[in-house]
Amino acid sequence: MALETRVYQKERTIKFGALLKASLADMYGSRFLARQLAERDIKAMYRQSYLGIVWAFIMPLTTAAVWIFLNSSGTIKLSDTGIPYPVYAFSGTLIWSIIVASINSPMTSTQAAKGILTKINFPKEALLLSGVYKLLFDTFIKILILVLFVLIYGVGLQWSLLLFPVAILGAIIFGTTVGLFLTPLGLLYKDIGKIITFSMQFLMYVTPVVYAIPKTGIMKTIMTWNPITPILLTARDLVVGFTPEYLNYFLVVLAVCIPFLFLGLIIYRISIPIIVERLSA
Predict the structure, then answer these.
(1) DSSP state of 5
(2) Which tens digits make up the pLDDT trace of 70-112?
(3) Backbone angles phi, psi at 199, to 5 degrees
(4) I need a surface site. Which of 124, 227, 230, 262 has the fewest CB within 10 A?
(5) What are the angstrom distances between the C-alpha of 202 and each of 73, 199, 206, 209?
(6) Distances (CA, A) of 18 to 24, 30, 73, 142, 240
(7) Residues 6 or more apart from 196 whose CB is under 8 A from it?
(8) CA distance 119 to 131
């Protein structure tokens, strides 16, 4: 009697739905741990700092101050922005800093936890959520300073300001999505962090951060199609009470980001254990 031969092989199919569900479940389940990690990092960040919370907005403030000086002194000639230029420059640099921080957040939070990643088994999504908590804390401080800035320069409080957090949430979603795809590479190669820093410095000059989109020319085309442009302009328009000119483009960018955000979570969930194993080897 012939015996039936069976060959067992490791299942190689990746079930994206199950991975995403598990990732979101772990993120929700580890929210308390994430909050504790965020509180620890925030306290450690400002405990031994003389300026403390000022560091949350000092960089966008100094960047804006440079451009305000160059514009007021006549060193450079910028096109009319429709609002007091200090408000335009500071709001732009502040919103830009939130986007940059969002991109760096997944990588920074994961790199900071390298020591415990190789020793303790816990949901890695807690690190992402911890980064979001810290990001929201810094963003809240920056929004308060921006509102104060708007009042000082006579723009006044507009009803559209109530929708400003929605635009900022869109900025955070966009940045976090990009950051999730860069994090695995950033953990393996330190060059990625340097490339991000260099790239964001370049991108700032092809985004209407400190000057308006030109009326004509190649820069108009580049800045118009730049996916960061609708995020930044929509947020700024809501602050100063303008009707968002790029609202539809903003919604398209946000809609495209959502599925990529989920894909980024799946890639993070698959790759981080492998990278941790490599780091501990």
Answers:
(1) P
(2) 777 766 777 777 888 888 888 898 899 999 999 999 998 888 8
(3) -65, -40
(4) 227
(5) 24, 5, 7, 12
(6) 10, 18, 59, 37, 44
(7) 103, 104, 107, 182, 186
(8) 20
Give residue 27's identity as a one-letter amino acid code. Answer: M
Which residues, 6 or more positions from 180, have their beta carbon under 8 angstroms from its beta carbon?
Answer: 106, 128, 261, 264, 265, 267, 268
Structure tokens at 147: 């509102």
- Distance, CA of 136 to CA of 159 (rounded, Å): 22
**Token pair belonging to 41:** 């990092």
| Reported pTM | 0.87
Coil, strand or helix at 146 = helix
State the Cα–Cα distance between residues 257 and 89, nearest whole angstrom: 27
SS (H, E, C) 195-232: HHHHHHHHHHCCCCCCCCCCCCCHHHHHHHHCCHHHHH
- Helix residue ranges per DSSP H, 113-217: 114-117, 125-152, 164-188, 191-204
**Residue for token pair 């760096």:** 104
Closest listed residue to residue 104, CA positions, set 181, 176, 208, 17: 176
Q: Which residue has the tokens 């869109």?
A: 170
